[in-house]
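User: Reviewer 2 asked us to show a designed sequence for the structure in our supplementary figure. I'm pasting the structure tokens here. Could you produce the per-position amino acids so we can include them in the response letter?
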């Protein structure tokens, strides 16, 4: 699962958080994503990315996970289940 939220409403900064090593490695390979936090005693990676519009950030989330992003209104956060194939992950 990858979670995505906007740091400050109306700004272009977004955070992506995951506990999946394959998804974290995929984000590490992309220039747009910058690792800003990680867990020492647990599997946790937090990345920052800059996108011009929220729809572009949601498309990036969909591209990363291979599944449609859902919105949690209570926490104001997007999330998507990870559907990364091994073959596709190695080629990316």
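Assistant: Here is a per-position design you can include in the supplement:
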């Amino acid at each position: 699962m990858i979670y995505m939220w906007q740091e400050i409403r109306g700004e272009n900064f977004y955070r992506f958080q995951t506990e999946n090593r394959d998804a974290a490695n995929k984000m590490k390979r992309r220039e747009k994503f910058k690792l800003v936090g990680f867990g020492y005693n647990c599997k946790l990676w937090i990345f920052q990315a800059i996108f011009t519009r929220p729809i572009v950030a949601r498309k990036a989330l969909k591209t990363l996970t291979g599944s449609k992003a859902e919105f949690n209104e209570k926490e104001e956060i997007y999330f998507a289940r990870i559907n990364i194939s091994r073959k596709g992950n190695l080629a990316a």
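For the response letter, you might also mention the following. The mean pLDDT is 89. The beta strands are 2-6, 13-18, 34-38, 45-50, 70-72, 77-80.
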